[in-house]
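Dear colleagues,

As part of the handover before I leave the project, I'm documenting each prediction I ran so the next person doesn't have to rerun anything. This entry is a single chain, and its sequence is reproduced below.
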Amino acid sequence: SIMRFTDSTQKILLALYSVLFTFSVLAIAFTQYRPLVYFVVITLIATVIFLQLFSEKISPTVILLEIVLLSLNMIFGVTLKYPLYFGGTDILGHLFFAEVTYLSGHVIPSDLDLSYTYFPLFHIFISEAAQVTGLTLSKVYFVVTGLSYTIIIPILYIMFEKILKNKRLSLFICLLYATTSIVIYYGPYMVTRVMAFVGFVMLLYLFYSREHYRGRGHSMSYGVILALVALFLTLVHQVSLPQILALLLLLLFFEYFTG
């Protein structure tokens, strides 16, 4: 049988998570760069979350919150720590387009960039967030995109729990997802194609929830939400939509032949 931690051990692990998380924040707040100890502590935090999956009574809400906070820690530990994180330089271009949108109140002109003139949703999102919050464009860019990126984690949990009917395994998948190298890399480097991936995960969730909505007589609502997400995908990153449709068709193909 698999080892299970008691409630008292679970409380100790939760307290340990809180202490380690606080220490990690302080480690980057009072240093000029992310020290080695920060990465060690982040690893320990992920280990503590993993150990909590072996508790007798798990709380998916608490563990999901811990995973989301860990992900935000790694994202904001880069984007809000350094003067201007630009990753693979695409961020600089998107900041410029968002600034043009913010100052003019219109989408960017076609002679500036034809592709994003007709697919401007990402830059509108950033400029509107700056208008609402009053933060600088560079600051609001990283705050709202970082928060948007972590929405994927609870959606993945709901989707996998629906498929696998296993809370522990679904939480483990979310933890594994949040700590993979490519996810860690694209957390701070949030550009249009990454925002399109957020839309893809939403679309995938809707795909697996179709029977739930239709069974409750919400076919019309389901269709509207599906259309809105598809429109979101199109207006955020036009190149991603054909790729995503191809993946969904492939998924439908295997669903059909595997029953």
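The radius of gyration is 20 Å. The mean pLDDT is 89.

All the best with the project,
I.
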